[in-house]
Amino acid sequence: MRRRIRRLSSQILLAQVAILTASMVIGFLLFAQTARTNLDADYQARAAAIAQTFAAVPAVQSCLTSPSAGCDATMQSLASETANRTGAAYVVVIDLDRVRHTHPNPALIGKRVSEPVVARDGKVHYRIDTGSTGLNANARVPMFGAGGGVIGEVSVGIRESSVSSELLNELPTYALWFALVLAIGALASFGLASLLKRRTFGLELDEIARLLQEREATLHGIREGVIAVDPAGRITVVNDEAQRLLRLPEGARGRLLEDVLVAGPIRDILTGTSEVKDAIGVTDEHVLVINRMPVTLGSRAHGAVFTLQDRTELTGLTRELDGERSFTESIRAQQHEFSNRMHALSGLLELGRADEALQYLTEIRGTTADLDNTLRTHIGAPMLIGLLLGKAAEANERGIELVVSPDTDLGEAPDRVQALTTIVGNLIDNAFDALTAAPAPRRVVVGIVETEHALTVRVSDNGPGVPSTEIPRIFENGYTTKRGSLVRHSGLGLSLVHSTVTALGGTVTVSCDRGATFEVVLPRVSAPAEETRA
Predict the structure, then answer these.
(1) Which of 1, 189, 360, 377 has its CA at 20 to 30 Å from residue 516's CA atom?
(2) What's the chain's average pLDDT?
(3) Closest to 498 in 3D by CA, of 517, 513, 518
């Protein structure tokens, strides 16, 4: 079984040597053919020179003009001597009647030639002659008489074997040069093969093909977004998931990353130069975990690779959990307050002060009844009532007054009640945190208004407010002005509110006038009439 040559450098070297060898052989053959043609032309010119010299001999001209009994013998002798001296195969003199007067074969002297006298026109004619003496380089020149007219023709031939012999003497030298060029080309091919081997990190062709197939399958099969950029920040690799998560335009590959991303925190992370691990980026539709890894090969920067993980569903669960946590904390505060009241009642009864205990119960019932009555009058959704009752207990525990705005109006089954609970809970928690270090009196006003077309949530506090320079950043993930023990949501509360509202097609705004006011507007999913029929 024939052994397969699989090494990339060997394949390249053999291919280059084969191409060079074929090119050299073809070139050498063409060169030999050209050299043969040139030698034929040289020998034909040499034959013409011999013929012209012989035609100018006075004795030959005299014999041909005025023939006598010994003229043919004289011309034959001169022709033989000239042929021997110059190496010509023959020197033939022909008159205008096509009669030979000289010839290497004496039997043909005095015989007519079958061909016409072509030199009658006074010009020199060249050809390769295949006559009785074999293959010759032939030249036929006119012989002029005393009056200047053509009186005959001199035909001289030089054997082609002489031409071939001279060609064979020259070819070895040229073959040596061709072989030297071939050797130089082979060395250059070996160097090129070695260079390509290094440039491909020692991988063979089948390994490169397999890596490409695996890369394509991996890139488009994983559920993480992958982007690779070169040192100039130009996108070299991008998979379908990255295009979906970042809404990259078609044809993003080959363009600068900063040109295809909208301005914002995500673009700042992706176009930076430092390593990034598990950074959170929030878009209008997705919550992303971003990692950035610079690539360095051979102490040279080769760009960077980004991975994008979609945490939108997990964040949604986190929002719901955060709402439940907030609700649980509120219930805990309410239970704590209830326990304190029970302890106070128990102490009064143990001391025998029944009248004071009754008076204390009346005060508690009045306060609780007022808040409960206010909530049930303005809000029909049980989940929101429970949340606000819990928040009221928590506010009382923290020395904050929680007030329900008189214009609050919410039905029993509002749209997106779970998202609404998350939004209201986070905004109230944010207001409580803002008032933690504020002087008394501390007050939070909550208003929820449901109309035919929209649902509006407004939460105000009389705390220090938000600096105007920080308003554009307060909804960024991780942003917070709280420090130490005041940090409860690590800057996630307002970011979650913003992403939730944006995902539902709503808007959230903030204004600062004697505190901070956050207003959320959510479009209604269905008209009230349709809800009634349902």
Answers:
(1) 377
(2) 79
(3) 518
